[in-house]
Amino acid sequence: MRDKNKKKNKIRLKKKIRIRKKIFGTVERPRLVVYRSNQHISAQIINDSDNIVLASASSFSKELRESLEGKTKSEMSVGVGKAIGKKALEKNIKKVVFDRNGYIYHGRVKALADASREIGLKL
């Protein structure tokens, strides 16, 4: 079982490299990166030209932990997506490039993206 998980992660990291060759966050259109673990999900908006994190939200941060307590992982993703969307709009970021970080665009990753679109972010 352990070897299977290592192989899956290795494949994901190869996909991540292929994706990152094409995606670059600029000042006008920064990159929205998603990281997904077994229990939590986090998102960051990054300006790659200056190497600056402009906004971030995660399911294990203090501000969201209480509101997401007792929810499913997909519901957590929706909460994180809405939080990152609100933080982006507060900083006048309306368009972003979506970096799924090698994960399949399905389930929790899709829920986060849809929730941030719902707030008004253009992916």
Return the CATH class: Alpha Beta
Provide the residue-averaged pLDDT: 94
Helix and strand succession? Answer: HEEEHHEH
Computed over alpha carbons, the radius of gyration is 14 Å
> Helix content range of the residues, please?
40-55%
Number of strands: 4
Count of helical stretches: 4
What would the CATH topology be?
Nucleotidyltransferase, domain 5
Poorly predicted parts: none
- Sheet having the most strands: 4 strands, mixed
Number of domains: 1
What share of residues are in beta strands? 15-25%
Distance between the termini: 36 Å
Shape: globular
What are the salient characteristics of this protein?
single chain, 123 residues, alpha+beta, Nucleotidyltransferase, domain 5, four-stranded mixed sheet, 4 strands, 19% strand
Describe the protein.
The chain has a 4-stranded mixed β-sheet. The chain has helices at residues 2-22, 62-68, 73-90, 108-119; strands at 31-36, 41-47, 52-58, 97-99. The longest helix has 21 residues, at 2-22. The chain has one domain: Nucleotidyltransferase, domain 5 (2-Layer Sandwich). The radius of gyration is 14 Å and the shape is globular. Helix 3 (73-90) runs parallel beside helix 4 (108-119). The chain has 4 helices and 4 strands.
In brief, what are we looking at here?
With 123 residues, the protein is of the alpha+beta class.
List the helices and strands and how they pair.
Elements: H1 2-22, E1 31-36, E2 41-47, E3 52-58, H2 62-68, H3 73-90, E4 97-99, H4 108-119
Helix pairs in contact: 3-4
